[in-house]
Each structure stands twice: as C-alpha cells, then as structure tokens.
Amino acid sequence: MKTKNIIIVGVGGQGSLLASKILGHLFVNEGFDVKVSEVHGMSQRGGSVITYVRFGDKVYSPIVDRGQADFIVSFELLETARALPFLKIGGQIVTNTQQIDPMPVITGAATYPENLVEKIRAKGIKIDAMDCLSLAKQSGSPKAVNIVLLGRLSHYFDIPETSWQNSLKANVPQKFLDINQRAFALGKQFV
Q1: Coil, helix or strand for 104?
Q2: pLDDT given for residue 165 in this prediction
C-alpha cells in the first residue's frame, strides 16, 4: 500500500497528541508501518501544535511535506487555514468549527477571518466541518473534541469499528473510556 499522510493541527491543550497516539496504535494493529512525529511551538500557551501520522507498507520518514497530506484533521478553524498548503490535490479536511482567538486577535492587532469553511470550500477543497465542541460536551466532556474528530475521520477508512474501539481502550484511561466512546460515536454518526 502506498504511504498515506495525515496532519493533525490544533492549539495546545486540545488533545492532538492523544489523537495521533490513537491513530498510530490503530494503524500498527492493522499491520501497517507507521511513523508519528510531533512538531509544536508554544503548545502549553495555546500555540499551534502539528502532528504527522504516516502509514503504509514501508514508511521511511515521519515528516509530511507541503502538498502531500491525504488528510488534515483540525481542532480549530484558523489552524485549518494555516495547514492548507500541506493538503494534496483531492485531499480531505476533517475539522472542528471552533474558533480560538490567537494572541494578535486577543490584543486587537488583527481580526479573526470570517467564513473560513465557505472560503475553503470555494477553492474546491473537500472539507468536512462540524461543531465538535458541542458534540464533546454532549458526550460528557468538552475535552473529548479530539475523539469526536477521530469518530468523524473513521468514515474515511475501511477499518472495522472494533479496531478503532480497541485503540481507544489501549490509549484512554479506563475512567474516561465511556465518555470517549460516546464522543467517538457522536463524531461517527454526525450527518
């Protein structure tokens, strides 16, 4: 199988590292060679976090170059826009519609761009956008945005539900498993 590339982008503290860990576990258990790499700046201060997940028959590097991402999984809309150069032609975006103001917006030096989903869609890019924060709250925890996104991402892979659930069980503490399973189901069932 040709190597597939996923970029996970978000803001520090949103759970992107757990999402990449779950995906890595999933793909290894499905028999793929997997490389995961984290590139983050001021993640503890709400800065951008980028994680690369690559899987296939043989993966030689953990880095995804511009124009090579099959999928962008995004926790925040402005991060989606920032990651666009990495998406390959025909690639798919799965994104949360949540907006988290970066420091220039907070200080008044800039304004948050409007209608980002519509602007991205107008470029002919496939974007699957949903309010993951509301779904995460519905599952029992606003921190489950990452798992809602994984539930939605699961639509794009021919991998059995049991494999996804096994990776959740292996990577999420038992006391939070029920919430995360509900979050995954809400993301998966979203229309």
Answers
A1: helix
A2: 97
Q: Tell me how far CA of residue 29 lies from CA of 21, 26, 32, 165, 184, in angstroms.
A: 12, 5, 7, 12, 19
């991205």: which residue's tokens? 120
**Position 44 pLDDT exceeds 60:** no
> What is the radius of gyration, based on Cα positions, of the chain?
16
Could you read off the pLDDT of 11-25 as tens digits, one per residue?
876 778 899 999 999
Q: Which amino acid is at 58?
A: K
- What is the phi/psi pair of residue 131, to 5°? -80, 85
pLDDT value at 55 more than 80: yes
Q: Nearest-CA neighbor of 6 among 60, 56, 54?
A: 54
Would you call 54 exposed, middle or buried from its count of C-beta atoms within 10 A (0-12, 13-18, 19+)?
A: buried
Determine the Cα–Cα distance for residues 15 and 121; give it in Å rounded to an integer. 26
- Integer angstrom CA distances of residue 52 from 35, 39, 48, 83, 149: 8, 8, 13, 12, 16
Helix, strand, or coil here: 138?
helix
Read off φ and ψ for residue 20, nearest 5 degrees. Answer: -70, -35
Give the architecture (CATH level 2) of 4-136: 3-Layer(aba) Sandwich (3.40)
